Amino acid sequence: MYKLKNMAKRASTFALAVSMLAGVGASAVPATTFADALNPLTERSLTLSSSSPGWLHNDGSGNNDTQFAPAGSGPNGLKTGETFQFRVSTDSTTSPTVKAFTLKYCTSPAGECTAPGNVGIDASTNPSEASDPGKTDVTKQSALDVNYTNPTAGTNITSAHGDFMVLYGENLTTASVSSGWEMATSRETDHDGWNTTGDNLVTLTNELGGLNVAGGTKVWIVFFASDTNYITNPGSGSFFVKINDFSSDTVFTTTPGGTIIDGGVTVANVMNESIWITTKVLETMSFSVGTENPDTTVRPHGSCDAITENEQIKMGADDAEFSLRTTTAYDAHSYWRLSTNSSGGATVYYSGATLNNTVGDEIEAIGATKQKSIVGSEQFGLAIDTTPDVLDTSDVANNGTPPVQKITPLTATTNYTEGAGLATNPDPNTNVSKFAFEKESLTSPVAIATNDDTVTECATGKMRYIANIAPSTPAGVYTTKVNYIAAPQF
Questions:
Q1: Distance between CA 8 and CA 18 in Å, rounded?
Q2: Beta strand pairing status for 201-205 and 330-340?
Q3: Quick check: 84 and 243 in contact, CB under 8 A?
Q4: What is the Cα 70 distance to its own chain's centre?
Q5: CA-to-CA distance for 176 and 93, rounded, in angstroms?
Q6: Cα–Cα distance list, 265 to 33, 94, 111, 150, 241 (Å)
């Protein structure tokens, strides 16, 4: 590049000396001729946000949505963004200032320009194209179209990029922003080609400071895609973009002595359909209940071991055959553990009757609204106890990570959140935990913990039960079964 520039300068000096010897005035050398006009833009490239044809703009499920095929994404060829990068040859720190860029999209790198696209083939003028099923299938046709309405220039590449930006620097993320640019699009072809109607010429102008950079500086021109402003890819094949820069923001002449600085070069790209991959992740679910937390015992632990121990819970004084007394409350615990890959979350319900005997006597259920334990009055209830157990962490070497007792990502429902704390004191004012139980859960299960928006890797619920009796509670053997139900949402 250095040799080319110096050869150009030497040639210009020699030509001027000859003209002077021949008696030709200095005015014969146009004042607007720059030696570097002989040098092209170098290290050119064009990066597309998508190489999909413009007619292809859906995701792997065939949907054109904002999550997996948004504007500016790989699957979306209808609404794309583009990034041009190149190095300028001419030093414009003094003159000539770069006041404009043009980018023209064509089907060939030289000669007449036909706008890229495969829409509306005319059999009389394009018989070869008209006989090609790939170009006459209306579901696979689109025209190159730079579709920007009132585009705005960005000021920050990450937070305020607008619709387009002109930058300079070695790396795009740290490049300096060149301000004052305006963008216009138009339809320009040198002869009649396919019946494509999109704009294929972009003109960037700057009537203010322009771009003043040293020769060899890397320049970036970035067009961002949104739902309203975007570039539509042609329907098939390759295309070329002719790039020029100019010293004027109004006159764009590429002939010797014109306003062109560097340029007269192209970048290329080609359309390809996306690789379509499909597979399945099958639904999984593990739900176990019991009376022992498996992570409290000394043994090898998996990441979410199922609860396997499920002994009958005996509530009451162990020195009186586990009978209830009016002078104290009695509590007990059980556990449930849930893991599922349901992306819509999951809910855990309980279903059961209150404590009852064989002749139909019942210990009164607390009801739907949570209450403290009140010794001496009939109560049966349950709640989620957040008090952590003492877990066995001795098997970390084999398991990799110690067990963790947590209910997240599920959260306890309103009336079942306060199962931790004192509950058995005869003075109800000192009790802090609260319980609830709905008899109707026997036929209409009641939600006790829920999560509605994410996968449940491993949630452990520690359930606490409370039982109180009054002096008038009929004698008898009271039993119940409480069933826990998990309902993942796939």
A1: 15
A2: unpaired
A3: yes
A4: 10
A5: 15
A6: 19, 24, 12, 28, 8
pLDDT of residue 122: 55
How far CA 156 is from CA of 86, 121, 204, 263, 358, in Å, comes to 20, 42, 18, 27, 77
Model pLDDT, residue 111:
85
pLDDT tens for each residue of 143-165:
999 999 999 999 999 999 999 99
Where the chain has pLDDT below 70, the residues are 1-38, 120-136, 190-196, 395-401
What letter represents residue 91's amino acid? D
Mean pLDDT estimate for the chain: 87
> Peptide bond before 409: cis, by omega within 30 degrees of 0?
yes
The first and second tokens of residue 448, run together, are 């006790």
In the numeric block, which tokens belong to residue 160? 């305020």
Q: What is the pTM of this model?
A: 0.67
Contacts with 400 (C-beta within 8 Å, 6 or more apart), sequence order = none
- Long-range CB pairs of 356-364 (<8 Å, 24+ gap) are 356/478, 356/479, 356/480, 357/474, 357/476, 357/477, 357/478, 357/479, 358/476, 358/477, 359/474, 359/476, 361/473, 361/474, 361/476, 361/478, 363/467, 363/468, 363/469, 363/473, 363/478
Q: Note the pLDDT tens digit of each residue in 335-347.
A: 999 999 999 999 9
Which residue, among 334, 414, 329, 330, has the nearest Cα to 368 in the 3D structure? 414
Whether 147 and 198 have beta carbons less than 8 Å apart is answered as yes
Residue 247: name the closest of 293, 288, 290, 206 by CA: 206
